[in-house]
Amino acid sequence: MKVPPAAIHIPAEDRAWILARIDECLQSGRLTLGENGAALEKQFAEMCGVRYAVAVNSGTSSLEIILRALGVEGREVIVPTNTFYATGGAVLHAGARPRFADCEPASFAIDADSLRQTMGPQTAAVIVVHIGGIITPHIDEIRRVCDDARVPLVEDAAHAHGSAIGGRRAGSLGRAGSFSFYPTKVITSGEGGMIVTDDEAIYQEALIYRDQGKEGFTTNFHVRLGYNWRMSEPHAIIGLAQLRRLDEFIERRQEIAAVYDAGLARLGSAATPVQPPAGSRCNYYKYIAMLPPGTDRPALKKIMREQHDVGLSGEVYDTPCHRQPVFAEYATGSFPQAEDLCARHICLPVSAKMAKDDARYVLEAFEASISELERAAVS
Q: Which of 28, 220, 321, 363 shows its CA 20 to 30 Å from the CA of 337?
């Protein structure tokens, strides 16, 4: 594909470093919970500006472990309905019930007014999701709502490595934060996740939960209903190589976003970018733009793919959680803002491998595809 929807970027020199480090790991025989995982935790905590980090095998498990450490079992956790399944799924796996809230259009994050209306005596935690790497401009208001109710705020920062607002990094804005290193993310470890926190109690519980609930690595005394949530040393090595590229990757993504901003401004009403708030740093995991009402998104994506060889990445998200069959029994209330956001946005391709000329070609393809749609509508 001329411009794929996403692309993993591991430079040749990094691949050589990774292979050499993995060879050392294989020779040592220490394949899990070793020095590479510890180094990744230390460096990631420093990047986020927090005291503690715990590496695990996925972003989903990192979120579930946080919720288990907070003791949400038997109660409710408020989740924005516009998020990936794993956010609500982690709530269920932690023994709690998801309670969905509506989302706001400025950042696709949880709506503060909807949060207030959804909060109740059974609320054990609130999850804010940094969709596409954008941190909501209302994060302090959301934090105050949680603090006033004495309910912990948890960040699902799966999209937000290196994103910040007001000089504060994603992962440092709530009681704890959860990151994903899935291959599509801004940085990857192949598979993996990270828990970050300043709360020592959560940190200690996370160490226990990720290793089968054992009170220590060298014992077989199990004190929690844990699981095998460990990150392997080879995965940690890949993560270390990627982490040192994070600022470089974000800078390239921001350059691509700037090309899109200028191009969409020239095209007028064809699509309106979702802009990060002033004073923030967006990593542009996704470049999100809103289509006018009535635009046939599947047809637009089909034209761009088949006629222009451009792949638009998956939406964030096309089906809100309250419409997912797995959450049917928890889908109470109405969520008009989230449904509109989910139905009308697109994500233009962005990656650390893209060149500005690639972005310009995407804009040309987008303009031509919109014209094709308009001609089909009147014919």
A: 363
